[in-house]
Structure formats: structure tokens, C-alpha cells
Amino acid sequence: MSKRPDVTALIARTLAEFGRVDILVNNAGYTHRNQPLLDVSEEEFDRIFAVNVKALYLAALEIVPVMRKQGGGSIINTASTAGLRPRPGLTWYNASKARSSP
Fold first, then answer.
1. 62 three-state secondary structure
2. What does the domain layout of the chain look like in residue ranges?
3. Which one, of 83, 75, 76, 99, lies nearest residue 31 by Cα?
4. CB distance 34 to 90 below 8 Å
């Protein structure tokens, strides 16, 4: 879900199979092992943000035009309590789940 061609293909296949998309549920998530923030590799950091943040962006880019064209739909984004109550040792995961407003 973190590569646009994959998301595009998923939406295209769904439309081909069912003719429309009424609901999109963003439920993918990835975390790192509980550890000091400096011990998380750059590759792992990139994967956390690709799955937990970028995937929602890519899904919206692909599905919102489809839902507008068909007259509506619903997008459900699941999150984590770590966005409200950060957990020790999961700095980057917590950041990827944080929200900007109450």
C-alpha cells in the first residue's frame, strides 16, 4: 500500500470486479521493535512512515476521484492509541500515529 502503482492496480481491479467502491478501510500498520529512537534504522523508519502515513495519502489520491465521480463513498482510517498516549521505546511509530488536532 506504500507504492502508488500498487494502489492504482488495487483500485482498478476492484472497479473491474465490482463496478464501484463504496467503502475504503485503511487498516495497514507497521511498527518497530521497542527500542531507543537512535537504534531504529533509516530503512525501518521509512517503512513505518510509508505504511502508516504515505499509504493513506496514496489511497486518497486514487479513491477520492472515483468516489466523487460515483456520487459518494466512505473512507475509514484506523489508527492507534499510541497517537494519543505515546508508548516508551516506540518513538517513530508513535509519531506516525499522532494526530494534529483533537
1. helix
2. 4-93
3. 83
4. yes
Using the Cα atoms of residue 49, residue 47, residue 92 and residue 28 in order, give the sign of their dihedral: positive
SS (H, E, C) 18-40: HCCCCEEEECCCCCCCCCCHHHC
pTM as predicted: 0.86
**pLDDT attached to residue 101:** 44
Q: For domain 4-93, which architecture applies?
A: 3-Layer(aba) Sandwich (3.40)
User: What pLDDT digit, counting tens, does each position of 37-94 carry?
Assistant: 999 999 999 999 999 999 999 999 999 999 999 999 999 988 888 878 888 999 999 9
Q: How many residues does the chain have?
A: 102
CA–CA separation, 66 and 42 (whole Å) = 34
Catalytic residues: 93
